[in-house]
Fold this protein.
Amino acid sequence: MKHLLFITLLIFTFSISKAQEHEIQNKVEELMSQLTLEEKVSLCSGRDDWSTMPIERLDIPWIWMADGPHGVRRAPATNKAGYGDQHPATCFPTASALSATWNTDLIYKVGQALGEECQALGVNILLGPGVNIKRSVLGGRNFEFFSEDPVLSGELGAAYINGVQSQGVGTSLKHYVANNVETMRMYMNSNVDTRTLHEIYLTPFEIAVKKSQPWTVMACYNRVQGEYGTQSSYLLTDILKNDWGYKGIVISDWFAVVDRVKALKSGMHIEMPHPGNVNNEYLLQAIKDGALDEAVLDEAVKEILTIVLKAKSLQKKDADLKEKEHHAFARQVEVEAITLLKNNNEVLPLDKKKYKKIAIIGEFAQAPRYQGNGSSEVKPTQLDNALEIIKKEYGKGVSISYAKGYDLKNDNDFSLIEESKKIAQEADVALVFAGLPLHYESEGIDRKHIDMPASHNKLIKEVSKVQKNTIAVLTNGSAVAMPWVNDVEAILETWLGGQAGAGAVADVLFGKVNPSGKLGETFPAKLEDTPAAFNFPGEQGDVLYGERIFVGYRYYDEKRIEPLFPFGFGLSYTQFEYSDMKVSSKQITDKDELEVKVTVKNTGAVAGKEIIQLYVSDTQSTLQRPEKELKKFTKVELNPGESKEITFVLNSRDFSYYDGKREMWIAESGSFTISAAASSRDIRQTQTITLNSEQQIPLMVDEYTFVKELWDNPQTRALIKEYIPKWIGNFVPEGKTLDEANIPGFFLEHPLIKYPYITNNEITKEQVEELIKRCQPLTYKPAYKQFEEKENVSF
Ligand code: BGC
């Protein structure tokens, strides 16, 4: 009862004050002293499909979780799966579309709206966002993830979480980590090297955790470097908790737990979904046997109770779903996501004076494809379709004809094309709605190719033969090949636009709004061009991340491959000019922040929004580095003739690489190019700066360090000279010093462990050990350059 009172006190506040936090902590301590061992164990798994375990005796409530990410998929009851019978909620555009907005403020608002709907539906934790990297174009869940780039994914993820959590509703950042393939998803081992893991796959989670502290993180199904994500202490404790300072709890993906005892020890709190009777027994037994310290369980239970009490205390009564408001908002969101990929002769926006007869072709115009398949499927509160909206809102003064174009049940049925050609020929412009049917993109199944159905491709090709003004309006959650790219006049990528997407498409087609989306993922010309082409989906339970850090545009840059449409690309009905790029200093240290300014002007005739991307390139480096990497971005709105100066702030992390051997980020001295760009292949302004790093890096000398490394390094050369065998003297020219000796390559190219052998024991094993000991405390400033300066490449 006391507990209920406490909850009521906190109701209607959206965030917890310090005093309330303190109160929750006291309550948790009080409960801990009353819980039995069995009760504590029971709290570490779900009660049923969607709720946590309550303990009535102590008035410990349960809380409700629901999928996410682009809408609330709330089942009719916590013990029902909720596929098909879920409660209606607003279906927003899916993550691919959200990422194309590049608008963190907008995504925050999407989060707010989702949080409001959770409150209205009694949901305490929304299972999203998904910040997994789109490693391969074939990934079955690409529609549910933001981007191929870690910074874009992480920033949008953080904005989403902050938005949801501002409403007193928690989130679940998923799926931690390297969950990039659906094939054998419960077992697949993501065989990824440590450097790549940090630079590409962990970074979005790191950004989101540090900037938004999600209440929960969802541990993945797959294994990472051989260990299940649900039981990796490296991932859950060392990195998530210790390195990043994560304060919330970790829940498992549904049925992801394998070794329950190991999982708890590693930092995984709640096993979802069901009461793990079998696993609870294991936990109890382990404690009884002494294999699991009860203190570990206590720590986990305290953290679980903290989240449960916080969630319950922030739950609102009688919150409104705001269906109408959110439907209108979902349209606005999609408006910013729509990405104009081609617009020859400014055929768009449609000028009704010029195009009096409009042919609308393709069943998607009438039966929209607006979200992906799987656990994220929302039951929309209403559903718009383009045909109806265009007729209703834009149909005055024009005549509109419609043909179905293809049969969604048979990809190879071309019988509807003739009729489509006929109406296209009679019209002044043809809008062909095509893309990927629902079963092409699904959780649990990877794609086998990147083609649209044959019937859709043929339809576009055939229509464009009879109608010069053919516009392809695409609906798909991930990249597709476009064999007809040169045949059509315009291409509008509309993604999976959510329940109100059709209205947004109409708004863009008729110029009510200027499109401002840009690609958050590269569209390749063909599958063979893609980074993971040879290593996807993997085999025999193992997937090799062979492209390493060269994911997405990093790969196309390195290989000099021209994609169909590059990362960060999107057109507008206006033009933007970039000028006056300035940096606050040309010389910085790793302690400094660098301000970068650039002015952007709308030089066209209509208002529009521009996404400005800031890339950093390390021009010389010890380790191989990508040509350039996205570090910052922003979106600005400009009226015709208006200009704005944008400021970005970079710090040493933005110049760093992750050293997998030393397990640390290293900002290396040297010169860096900073580029302000309209896309990854459209660099508008650059500045070069020099970084003088003061960072001290451990040398890390061991028996496998090569003699050459110690000889080449001025710090260790002095030392190693004491251990040079006498016969090297033969290579010292007369009158010269040892430094000038022409030391034979075979000697330098050996690790220290071989020293006794190659010197015929002149230098003994003990002396090698002594040398290593003397080197160990040494550090250096990272400026050693191994790779040649890269030639400047302009695309
Ligand atoms: C998915 C998660 C989802 C969970 C609950 C799992 O199969 O991987 O993303 O949140 O089911 O539906």
Q: What stands out?
A: Residues 1-13, 786-795 have pLDDT under 50 and may be disordered. The chain is about 30% helix and 20% strand. Residues 18-314 form a domain with the TIM Barrel fold (CATH 3.20.20.300).
